[in-house]
Amino acid sequence: MKKLKLIMIFAMLVIILFTSCDLLKPTGTLTLSATDPWLPTITFSGQKTQLEKDQTMTVTATVSPAPDTYAWYLDGKAISGATTNSLTIGSTLEIGTHVITLIVGKGDYRSSEEFSMEVIPVAAAATLAINPATITNGTINTTYTFTLTAASLPANLTQVKFNWNFGDGTTDSETVTVSNKTASTTISHAYTADSAYGLVVTIDDGTNTLATAYASILIGTANAGTNYDLTVLDQWTAANSGGYGITVDTWDISTLPNGVVFDLKFDAYSMPDKFIVEYPDGTIVYNSGWRGDASYEGPKYPGGIAGIGAGQSLAMFAKGTQQYFKITIIGGESGTAWEYSMKARQP
């Protein structure tokens, strides 16, 4: 009997304790969801697996559900100031493999994603060649064929676009498949008038011009030109005057220091003439177009009259390794006359 009383007293004490203690009363409800722990989806856009030295890329992260904080890391080290969903990186990276990590946070939770990239040495600049690079004593209405070859193209380039201008107003382009960093095509053209023309070809990747090449085409028989020596600076040296036909003059600059630049002044008077400067051979650094009175405008002067007879071109080129340059003058028709002078100077 005594034991029963003790049990009843203990039960009553337990009831009193649970009903009177505020600490044991419920204060709310606990709801669990799929975001506890927080598991966002992180995706990147704009990242590259390879990047040439000193180039940059911008990476953007899309995080869902959205986080409160962003922190970017390079090879395990925090990137100072990189605390948004976008990161521009690359200009200071060394050659080799790197790991880019993004850590995002929401409350006390953290989640991360990363990708690897490789910084590679700068590739050799793309080159472009035209073969043949020079045609002399060509004839009108004869079709000439040129092979265009691009080399050292970027490793990830699958197509390249060739663009060309034959110098008589005829232009065209073609997209060519790249194989082993090279691409090639052939183009053909017939000129309808005696003159000197500059074939200009460029290649591009759809955004940037990668290389440019030139070819010099002389249709018609050239007059015997003159060889000149340009030996002084800051002084105009006059060439012999001329007239109808095609004249090619050669100027020796072997005594002048490398780096000096060259100026040209000319006068074609009223009947149109054209002045073309090459340096080095095959590279046209200046083409005056047909210069003379506008009343001569017509099919005899392809491309039209570019300006009055008198003109000049300053700092056309700087002296490099080649020790001479050429000037071709085209006198468009019988009775024309022209003159020109050259000057070398320090830039």
TrEMBL record:
Ranges of residues in domain PKD: 136-226
Entry coiled-coil feature ranges: none
SUPFAM superfamilies to which the protein is assigned, alphabetical: PKD domain
InterPro entries in alphabetical order: Ig-like_fold (IPR013783), PKD_dom (IPR000601), PKD_dom_sf (IPR035986)
UniProt name for this protein: PKD domain-containing protein
Organism encoding this protein: uncultured spirochete
Top-level taxonomy: Bacteria, Pseudomonadati, Spirochaetota, Spirochaetia, Spirochaetales
